[in-house]
Structures are given as C-alpha cells and as structure tokens.
Design a protein that fits this description.
The chain has 58 residues and is an alpha+beta fold. Helices cover 17% and strands 10% of the residues. It has 2 helices and 2 strands, in the order αββα. A two-stranded parallel sheet has the order 1-2.
Length: 58
C-alpha cells in the first residue's frame, strides 16, 4: 500500500504474472509494465458514512 515499493516487492516482481497496485504512481517503479494491474485501496462503505456523533474517543 505504498507508492514506493520495497526491496522485496521489487525483487519478486521479476518472477510474478501480476502486480496489483494500490497507487497508479507506483507503476513507474516497475520495469515490466505488462504485469501491472491497478486495484486501488478498497474502503468499506460504512467507513464513509459514519457520522461524527458515532465517533468514539481514542
């Protein structure tokens, strides 16, 4: 879930059929563009609809 992939992801990217990206900006960090798939970072709908009154104290 980072724009800049880590060392492990960079190394393993040479051996995979698909790389799922959370951010489109990360595409520039991988050499083989054919395996890239942008999936985004899904968010549950109820997170978007919580009212401030329902928020608890942290």
């Amino acid at each position: 879930q980072n724009v800049i992939p880590g060392v492990t992801n960079t190394i393993l990217s040479k051996f995979v059929n698909r790389i799922a990206l959370g951010y489109r900006e990360a595409a520039g960090r991988f050499k083989n563009k054919d395996v890239l798939v942008y999936t985004g970072n899904p968010v549950r709908q109820d997170i978007l609809t919580v009212s401030r009154e329902e928020d608890g104290v942290l």
